Amino acid sequence: MTGVLDLRLIRDDPDLVKRAVEAKGIDLDVDALLALDAEVRRLKGSSEAAQAEKKRLSKEFGRADEETRARLREEIARIDAGLQKDKDDLAAKQAELDELMLLTPGIPWEGAPVGADESDNVVIKKVGEPPVFDFEPLDHITLLEQRGWAEFARARNVAGERAYALVGDAVLLERALLSYALDVLVTRDFTPISVPSLVREMALVGTGMFPKGREETYELPADNLFLAGTAEVALVGLHAGEILDKARLPIKYAGISPCFRREIGSASRDVRGLVRVHQFEKVEQFILCEADDAESERWHATLLDCAESLLQALGLAYEVVECATGDMGIGKFRMNDINTWFPSLHTFRETHSCSTLHDWQARRADLRYRDSDGTVKHVHTLNNTAIATPRLVAALVENHQNADGTVTVPEPLRPYLGGRAVL
RNA sequence: GGAGGCGUCGCCUAGUCCGGUUUAUGGCGCCCGCCUGCUAAGCGGGUUGAGGGUUAAACCUCUCGCGGGUUCAAAUCCCGCCGCCUCCGCCA
Known about the structure:
Layout: H1 7-12, H2 14-24, H3 30-63, H4 66-101, E1 122-127, H5 140-146, E2 150-151, H6 153-159, E3 165-166, H7 169-187, E4 191-194, E5 198-199, H8 201-207, E6 218-220, E7 225-227, H9 232-238, E8 243-245, E9 251-260, E10 279-289, H10 293-313, E11 318-322, E12 334-342, E13 347-356, H11 360-365, E14 368-370, E15 376-378, E16 380-389, H12 391-399
Parallel strand pairs: 4-9, 8-14
Antiparallel strand pairs: 1-11, 2-3, 5-7, 6-7, 9-10, 10-16, 11-12, 12-13, 13-16, 14-15
Helix pairs in contact: 3-4, 5-12, 8-9
The structure holds one RNA strand of 92 nucleotides.
Keywords: Aminoacyl-tRNA synthetase, ATP-binding, Coiled coil, Cytoplasm, Ligase, Nucleotide-binding, Protein biosynthesis
Protein name: Serine--tRNA ligase
Domain Aminoacyl-transfer RNA synthetases class-II family profile: 139-410
């Protein structure tokens, strides 16, 4: 792994980094980091000089006679005494520095609202009208149970809180949603890819999920693996350490994977139903592109548009939110959530999250490409949900329910459900 | 789970047994130049990455899957891990 934020950026413009730390509410002492960096460089200087001298003498040793060798051995031992101490100091300081570097934030774009949390998010767009019912609409839990489309109590007996089992048409509907989303992305030239959910720690550090999100992640200590909360983890890891040909960019993936989240921070919220669960399915949009702000901005707009198009085609009302600095997470440059209307909640709930990571994630995971001029650069990475189920199954049945308990199938999903217009 | 083999600078490859003129060989590709009616061929040079350093260079360190160890000295010897291949066992 190389630098996380470019160390040189921190040296050259510490105030910029401090502002980002402040805006994102991160607990990081930039001055302490810089002091550590200066110390590391000092120790590097002295230990490398000693190392160079040692190498030189060692070469001489090979050609020397016995007498000279004895002298060289002494001389080298003398160098070693000092060198070893410098090296130990260096290793310790470097480790400290690395740890701090993992906490350095990505610099948010200037358009992001500055604020501590999601209460400072700004709604920038509303699309579609929440449905008006001439009957008393049901929440998705009641609706699904009445129709025999879900088992909640029994599933919880098997698997604990937040567990669910979809049954019958709900399963078909879920699969229709996922298939439809994947197909739409394929027509938009995304490469469909199914990726591992079981991942190594390095992959989670590379995406930026770790160290902060550690307690949100399921761990399998017997195998030294973790359950990823999104396909993004594997998609970032896929090209880690590579130097890609510029001609290969942009890489556009439509990743599918089961996703796992412990939901530790959300104790008693949404404990019932399909809105917040430990295990779900997701089609994820993911982009690797050149390190060019205009280029990644275009892709950000594209990812947003893909998600919006899906929601529009599904006949769901939604709002797009410009996320505040304190809500977007440590690494992000820009984040737009899409919140979809849930009639039972009388409000919009997050169903999509579109993020530009700039080069922050690429630096962590070491995702690089060779530019036309031969220089090696870190790519920009972006991601957005396409469809996450069963949360969207819940939105769908709530929004499209009829008085008789049936659910109208949005036009584009019908081909995936044997042409049925109503479930 | 068991046995064996392998991992070298974009790709292929020499070097590993027997540690030291290895600043890692050669080819392909790529870049620059020369030459040539054009093209091809030919000739000369360059071409891993990271960090430090410098106005810029020079220069220095690290990098032969990753991490340790032995040694004055490690691609080369030892240990652990990861990955790939072959075979056996098991298995959706």
